[in-house]
Amino acid sequence: MDEKRAIALLRQGSHEAFSSIYATYWSKVYNFSRLYTVSTDDAKEAVQSVFVKLWEKRELLDEEKSLEGLLFIMTRNFIFDQDKKHLNEELYRDSVLQAYNEDYIKHHCDLEEQIIAKQLSKHIDLLIDSLPDKQKTAFTLSRKKYLSYKEIAIEMNISEKAVEKLITKALKYLKQNCTLLFIFCSM
What we know:
Elements: H1 3-11, H2 15-36, H3 40-56, H4 67-100, H5 102-108, H6 111-130, H7 133-143, H8 149-156, H9 160-185
Helix pairs in contact: 1-2, 2-3, 2-4, 3-4, 6-9, 7-9, 8-9
């Protein structure tokens, strides 16, 4: 099926046209994704997200424009968005850990900030203690013993991907609950 016809049919909701476009372009999108992602799972997620978005936005497609170019732009944007998300998570994690570090608190904060930081530290300790066992173990090994995901995976006898998921869930839980504390404290 020629590209212009496939786009016209896709705009009308044709699953056959979508399947044809997917079969034609998935490997190109995947290979492009692999240039910018760390794992094959991340590249597969990029491909899936790009094609889902293509389907969702099909009515906006223009038969006169290059579908391949559009797919590459969508892929690039997805990867950049994911990178920004991970960067924001890392910045948040670092700021929580910095607040958690008592040496930093003693040397860089006034008395009121030290009191708030100690309260936050106690609150974080309680939150860490309330995590499910595996999340708590992975988080503690990562943040208090400074082990890499690979070292944690070996120690816990699980995959690195499982370690990443456990720590991501723990950070999400801490972020949600620390945000609530910040809102409460600022009232």
